[in-house]
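Lab channel / #folding
Pinned by the channel admin:
"Please post every new chain as: sequence first, then the structure tokens as a reply. Keep commentary short and put observations after the output so the thread stays searchable."

First post following the new format, from NK:
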Amino acid sequence: MDTHIIQAPEQSNPLAVDQTISLKAYLNDHESCEALRAAAKALEFTTTVHTGTVNTAIKALDGARSPNVLVVDLSGIDFELAAMEALANVCEPNVRVIAIGERNDIFLYRRLKSIGVAEYLYKPVNQEYFEQALRDVTGRSSQRSKARLGKLVVAVGASGGLGTTTLAVNLASHLSTVARRRVALLDLDLFSETTSLLLNTVPNAALCEALDNPERVDNKFLERAMLQVSERLDVLGSDGEKIPVNGLTPDGVRIVMEHLQSLYHYTVVDIPTSVASANPALLVGADTVFVVCDGALASARNAARLIRTLTPSCPTLHTVLNRAGAPGQISMAEIETVLGRRPDLVVPFLPKNFANAAILGTPAISGNHRVKVAIGRLAREVSGQDASRSSLLDRILRR
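Reply from TO:
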């Protein structure tokens, strides 16, 4: 495969583009490659141009970090939209995609734009066209477009000790291993190392540093701070030793979450009950919020109060009845009466399965079919598979 790398020259112009922007291209004709190289040089980008098409990009980016800007060639591809769907499966959500092709087709253009592709150009594409497109998608022109963000999923328990963290860990693992998406797990319980124990990781103080100095947080900071659990799952939590001077401030938490959303398809947040109750605005904008309770009367009552508190900020709120069937629980009819609604999702009581997984430091879904099925219901709710028959690309990119 032919590869040509253009190194950006030293900048003397203070208005020159930010050097952290990375651009990769997969183009299958010499003229387009040369035009893009010239445009990249004029804009002082560090750019890698490969010979290939969107299919080449799919293979190259599967499991790899994505660039900020990606240029792909649709020439010779019979099913362009299906190819773009496959590309969405391997790319991070903040990637700005420029597609080029041979068809001057207004329907194709509108369809690609509607699903989140930043720009579509048809051949022949000269340097000027590439320059304008790159300016638009990187904010170098007045037509700055809003970056896409991954989905934000929040799990909050009606009280402590209900297995909320265990559900969050297994949901994040399911989304990363079964759905094969890039997932960040954010544990906002600063006094507990439960997440680290369940995933057999050694926590660090990066989250506390981020909350103490939110103005220093950027994508590079978080990329260094995240602990890698698997190829597609990273975790950020507290070591329980250093606690932020200002605690969990809404601004600090919001900044961390927004940066994670720009890097991952899904950001799963485990948030303590007290924090969610005191700061319901933190959950504004979440794609899905799970309020977790079990079948104990006190738990159901706490959940009902929490639901009333959070509902104005969280129209996407769902109730999860965890440990259903455990001894000492009230009946389902009584639970519905207390909650004022039927639980949206039910996770059965599987104490041995979850306990064994905790001892091993591995997600319970990896070793038990019943757990995998139960967590799969939560994952389908998050991904929207049950709610819509729209394409996967629509659900990932249309935000």
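NK: The radius of gyration is 23 Å.
TO: also worth noting, DSSP finds 16 helices and 14 strands in the chain.
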